[in-house]
Specification:
- The radius of gyration is 22 Å and the shape is globular.
- The strands form six sheets. It has a five-stranded parallel β-sheet. Strands 9-13-10-11-12 form a five-stranded parallel β-sheet, covered by helices on one side.
- The chain has three domains: about 180 residues, 3-Layer(bba) Sandwich (FAD/NAD(P)-binding domain), CATH 3.50.50.60; about 110 residues, FAD/NAD(P)-binding domain (3-Layer(bba) Sandwich), CATH 3.50.50.60; about 80 residues, Enolase-like, domain 1 (2-Layer Sandwich), CATH 3.30.390.
- The relative contact order is 0.12.
- Helix 1 packs parallel to helix 9.
- Helix content is about 25%, strand content about 30%.
C-alpha cells in the first residue's frame, strides 16, 4: 500500500504537487518540507513588485496556513534535508529528524551562482524572500547601485532600483543584454530602454573588486545552478539537474524530480534540458502527481517565460535557440511586436513584446504543431487563433 508521499521543497512545484495529489484523489499522508521558515510563497514578484514596494509579504503567499490543514497536508517549515537513502526510503534533516516515504518528489529548485568573496565581499543576491527582505531596505539607503549580470533578474532589479531614483550601472560580460535567450533586435530594445531611463549599461564589462568598490551597493545576478546534490549523493542519475523521464521519475522509480532541479527531454527544444520557470515547475508537478495517482500523463508542455522591465513586458513561447528564419508582427517603432521563429518552415518559438494576445496564440500554435505562413504572421488582420 502506498500511503505516504514526501515532497522536498515548497516553491511553485512543491506546492502544486501537494495540491494536485489531493485534487486527483490521493488520500494518504502528504508531507511538504520547506527549508525556509516562511509560508510557501511566489518567487517572481521578488525582483518586481515586492522589490519596488507594490506587493507585501502577505501578497506573495500561495495559501494561508489553514489551507494546508484543511487539505491534510503536513507542512513542515524550516527543515533542510541533508541525506536521502533510497533503499530504506528515508530522508534525514540537518536537525536529525527522519522522514520516511513511499514516494518522494524532489522540488529543491536552484541556487545562485556567486562571485568569489574577494571580488564581491558584500554583494547581495536575490533568490528567496530572505534575500529580498535584506535587499529592499538596503536599496532604500543608498544612492549608487551596481548590478552584475544583464539577464532577467539583474535587469529587473536594475529597473526597480532606477525607478526608485537610484543611479544604476549594469555590468554585463557579454556583448549584449540577455544574449543567452534573446536575438540582437530585442537585446537592443532593452538596452535602449534602460539607457533612456538613466541606467548606465557597460557591455563586455570587467568585474573586479576595484570596480565594484565604486558603488554603494552591489547586486549579483549571474545565473543559477540546480540543487541536485541530495539526489546525486544517493546515486540517482544527474547531469545538469536530476535526470527524469516523461513522468518525472528519476533513475529510482519511487523518486520524482520537478522544476528547476530536474533535467528532462523537451520535444520543443529537441534536447535534454533544464527549464527555469514557474510554468515548467507547475506543469511537471501535475505530471508527477498524475503518475503517482495512476492516472499517467506524459510531460509535453510548450515552455514559456516572461520578464517585466519598465514598460516592456516580454513573453516568450517555445525555445528560440535553433531557427533559420523569422517574421515580425506588429509595430517595431512602438515596441509592440512579436518575432515568430521558424526552423525549416516550422514555427518553433515566438517572442512577444507588449503583445499578450500574440503570446497566447503562439503557445496554442506551437503546442498543436500548427505553423502560419510568414505572410499570415506579418498581416495583423489575420487572426492567429483561427489558423
Amino acid at each position: 500500500m502506498m500511503n505516504k508521499i514526501v515532497i522536498v521543497g515548497a516553491g511553485h512545484g512543491g506546492v502544486q504537487a501537494a495540491t494536485s495529489l489531493r485534487e486527483m484523489g490521493f488520500e494518504g499522508t502528504i508531507q511538504l518540507i520547506a527549508e525556509e521558515a516562511h509560508l510557501p510563497y511566489q518567487k517572481p514578484p521578488l525582483s518586481k513588485g515586492f522589490l519596488n514596494g507594490k506587493q507585501t509579504e502577505e501578497n506573495l503567499v500561495f495559501r494561508h496556513a489553514n489551507y494546508y490543514a484543511e487539505q491534510k497536508i503536513d507542512l513542515v517549515l524550516g527543515e533542510k534535508i541533508r541525506e536521502l537513502d533510497p533503499q530504506s526510503q528515508q530522508l534525514t534533516a540537518v536537525s536529525g529528524r527522519v522522514f520516511s516515504y513511499d514516494k518522494l518528489i524532489i522540488a529543491t529548485g536552484a541556487r545562485n551562482r556567486t562571485l568569489p568573496s574577494e571580488v564581491a565581499p558584500n554583494a547581495f543576491y536575490l533568490r528567496d524572500l530572505t534575500d529580498a527582505q535584506r535587499l529592499r531596505p538596503a536599496l532604500d539607503a543608498v544612492d549608487t547601485v551596481a548590478v552584475v549580470g544583464g539577464g532577467f533578474i539583474g535587469l529587473e532589479v536594475a529597473a526597480c532600483a532606477s525607478e526608485a531614483g537610484k543611479k544604476v550601472t549594469v555590468l554585463e560580460v557579454q556583448d549584449r543584454l540577455m544574449a543567452r535567450v534573446l536575438p540582437p533586435v530585442l537585446s537592443d530594445i532593452f538596452l535602449k530602454k534602460h539607457q533612456e531611463m538613466g541606467v548606465e549599461v557597460i557591455l563586455q564589462a570587467r568585474v573586479s573588486r576595484e570596480v565594484l568598490s565604486e558603488y554603494d551597493l552591489v547586486v549579483v545576478g549571474i545565473g543559477v545552478m540546480p540543487n541536485q546534490e541530495l539526489a546525486e549523493s544517493a546515486g540517482i542519475t544527474c547531469h545538469n539537474g536530476i535526470v527524469v523521464n516523461e513522468y518525472q521519475q528519476t533513475s529510482q522509480p519511487n523518486v520524482y524530480a520537478i522544476g528547476d532541479c530536474a533535467s528532462h527531454f523537451n520535444r520543443f527544444a529537441g534536447k535534454q534540458c533544464r527549464l527555469e520557470s514557474v510554468q515548467n515547475a507547475v506543469d511537471q508537478a501535475k505530471i508527477a502527481a498524475s503518475h503517482i495517482c495512476q492516472k499517467p500523463l506524459a510531460y509535453d508542455s510548450v515552455p514559456w517565460f516572461w520578464t517585466n522591465q519598465f514598460d516592456l513586458k516580454l513573453q516568450m513561447a517555445g525555445i528560440n535557440s535553433d531557427y533559420d528564419s523569422y517574421a515580425f508582427r506588429g509595430d517595431l517603432g512602438a515596441n509592440k511586436f512579436s518575432i515568430f521563429y521558424f526552423n525549416r518552415e516550422k514555427l518553433v518559438a515566438v517572442d512577444s513584446l507588449n503583445r499578450p494576445a500574440d503570446h497566447l496564440a503562439a503557445r496554442k500554435l506551437i503546442q498543436a504543431g500548427s505553423t502560419p505562413t510568414k505572410e499570415q504572421v506579418e498581416d495583423i488582420n489575420v487572426k492567429l487563433g483561427a489558423i
